[in-house]
Design goal:
With about 350 residues, the protein is mainly β. It has helices spanning about 60-65, 240-245; strands at about 5-10, 15-25, 30-35, 40-45, 50-55, 75, 80, 85-90, 90-95, 105, 120, 125-130, 145-150, 155-165, 170, 175, 195, 200-205, 210-215, 230, 250-255, 260-265, 270-275, 280-285, 295, 300, 310, 325-330, 335-344. A nine-stranded antiparallel β-sheet has the order 11-12-13-14-29-23-22-17-20, with no helix packed on it. Strands 1-2-3-4-5 form a five-stranded antiparallel β-sheet, with no helix packed on it.
Amino acid sequence: MTTVTKKLFDTMSDGTEVYEYRLTNSHGSFVTVMNYGATITSIVLAIPQGPVDVCLGYRTLKEYQENGGYLGACIGRVGNRIGKAHFSLNGKEYHLAANDGANHLHGGNVGFDKHIFAIEEIDGGIRASRRSIDGEENYPGNLDVTVDYLFDDDNKLTLIYNAVSDADTPCNLTNHTYFNLSGEDDGSILDHTLTLNASAFTANDGECQPNGTIASVEGTCFDFRTPKTIGQDIGQADEQLKNAGGYDHNFIPDGTGMRKIAHVSSPKTNIQMNVYSDKPGVQFYSGNFLEDQIGKSGTKYAKRAGFCLETQYYPNSLAFEHFPSIILHAGETYHFTTAYEFIV
């Protein structure tokens, strides 16, 4: 039985109060989510050695607002990159914020991660919702979004995304939680063992976005079909690794529909995590650009202090017809589910 409690987290400069919601299961493990950015701020697991928080985060709202990395945030309207910050739709050109070099990243200058969501309690957790109005960050259409955050007695955190628009629009929602299964204050995820059930990935160009090539993982450092540590091959002289400073690539999980796409484990806590999703892709990011910011426990979040598994459509999909389309047509429903199951 999951219980939900609410407390004041911080106050914005305009006086808007930001609240944090705690979802606690019968074992005493809990997840916290704040209404600013519908951001996951902690995932605390009860293990024999004592509680372990496996989610990177900050103490204050100001740090979430000013530090990079999108820690824990709901990302939209389009997660990941749109090449050259523009796209064509129904005969019209749309120009977006170029907030990642020449490209558009994670919804622009004021993406979903910087908005207040309405929160309501539902069975098993909470529902976060907002309307992204027509023209927000220059995207077309009014997009109504809900994200359900459910946490159960099996320590499974499930995110259910729903969206509908009154006009055709790109839509690719994801979550940007950084995990460290040894604890958010441990410092490195290179010793974590990762299995990715993906036979292919999208190769990147020098700007860390797909160049249109769908590449086999066979015989490369991107082959995680057999378990290996994240650090085993990350230092190889591989052009793809050099382009991203490590792993920052979209993998294409085998199969379709809701399936197990990944398994991760820590050698220090023995905490394991299974990831399930019905999304067509997942961005594995090894925290290459974390920049020595101080986390919520006072520990410095340096390079590779956490990893992300961001379920998504392929990045830069608007540039390539052979990639799954991210266009949500007017009146259609965007509906996807991702679950992170923790084994303690």
